[in-house]
Write a structure and sequence with these properties.
258 residues; alpha/beta; 6-stranded parallel β-sheet; 4-stranded parallel β-sheet; 11 helices
Length: 258
Amino acid sequence: MTNDNPIGVFDSGIGGTSIWSAIHNLLPNEKTIYLADSKNAPYGQKTKEQIVALSKKNVDFLLDMKCKLIVVACNTATTNAIRELRNDYDIPFIGIEPAIKPAANNSKTQVIGILATKGTLNSELFNKTAEMFQNTTIIEQVGYGLVQLIEDGNLYSPEMTQLLESYLQPMIDANIDYLVLGCSHYPYLIPQIKKILPEHIQIIDSGEAVARQTQNILRDKVGFTKAQKSEPIFYVNSNPVVLDSILEHKYNVVQKDF
């Protein structure tokens, strides 16, 4: 089964490029279209109704581009809108949510930390997942301000360091041995997070798992491309400078209102 249409990926901004990168590395021949809704970032402080509406707007854009499946590369959009998207559209969706299961199952201290947005931690889907692990203490922390600093290009600012230290130290004091990153922006913070955490604390994000699931859906339901290689396209509805720098100027970044 073959299908040369592109894979669509969207996020509330540039953070989902961490998910896109994992997909691109695993499936380099697949054409991909990435949509960065930076104008409306962050989603984590918005209501469920707003998140659903923005997610549908993004899906409509990607469907106009003839995407064959859509990856919701945003924890907040997944946990608040994936059910509505699957109900309203006849196309496969792949979501992303905090990887609680591998952290809880492998934890020796039975204490894990979750750094995520308010929208993710307050969602019904997240709380249903967390309830499955009654024997594990889950230290939840909203990453107030982190997404906006990343979107503004202040990845290595003193303010970022201060925020990360204030969010992570209580988790360290609580004896976590796994930290789950519950926002697709946060993998870009891993080098700084590693400087704060003791070496024994493992960091988990969902990029590779999402890439493997994308491969599975292509194999089982949608079809792989016959192309040898396709150049990705990135759309952003605000200043493209930060997205371009995250991508190291390697790819085609298009500023477009949507």
